[in-house]
Amino acid sequence: MSGDLSLDINIKEPRWDQSTFMGRAQHFFFVTDPRNILKSSETLEDARITVEKYRLGVVKPGLTEDELWRAKYIYDSAFHPDTGEKMVVVGRMSAQVPMNMTITGCMLTFYRTTPAVVFWQWVNQSFNAVVNYSNRSGDAALTTNQLAAAYISATTGAVVTALGLKSLAKRLPAVMSRFVPFFAVAAANCINIPFMRQRELKYGIPVTDEEGNRLGESVTAAKSGIIQVVVSRIGMAVPAMAIPPVIMNALEKKAFMKRFPVLNAPVQVGLVGLCLVFATPLCCALFPQKSSMAVSSLETDLQERILHSSPHTTTVFFNKGL
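^ Sidoreflexin, sequence as received from the core. Prediction below:
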């Protein structure tokens, strides 16, 4: 060992208590910080080396605890927790706010024509497909054919849902048509996330004991993780897609907005961004990232294997994904 920093700091876990909502919220405010996408490749690589060496018991000379935690959060913002691979920029959780504020703002602005609805739903679900794949649980990758099939199924389902809701909205008050993008996104999340993570539903995700020892793969755990992610994603969309339409409906009646209609899109994007800055980390924090499940709730064959290999284990843990 080199340096003076203690090796007792557990950087496998977040800095804050993940058994509480506030602890998880603090964690995700750092993970989803949009400034992290501006980090250079050199900064990301330096953070990776610092974290991986510390895990091996090697401390960089002069490294402080705050610098170690900063490196960990930079590392977590760009590298997959199970595979260790660097995620594409738009797939990282730190890209959620800038990407979603742009796409969602445009969805809420350009909702009146069918071509616009189709285009922006396609853009949104293409982005979501990248995010869902990048933040999947487990370490088994989809094949190119599986990925293509999942993407086509998810985006087609989302676009069809949006068009169906748009058609229904014609019979409702005008203000209700503004909420079509939200209901379409909510429904599409229920389609997109399971499709992009279908391999997990077929083969399961890794489950471990409290010390991180891998015990097997569970489809039941995968289902639980995906449901939690769907709920979180819909929760993220509620403030960003429900509050701005109400505000814009009032603003568009004002003289200055009628005089400068070009302001519609940037104002809408700004409002969405303001909502997402808080909604993204708070909704990610609804459920622990390291979820748990009783062994008795797992598949029967996996229960038997765990009983044989680790008889004292009563609870297993798994990464639910994001």
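The chain has two domains: 21-86, 93-287.
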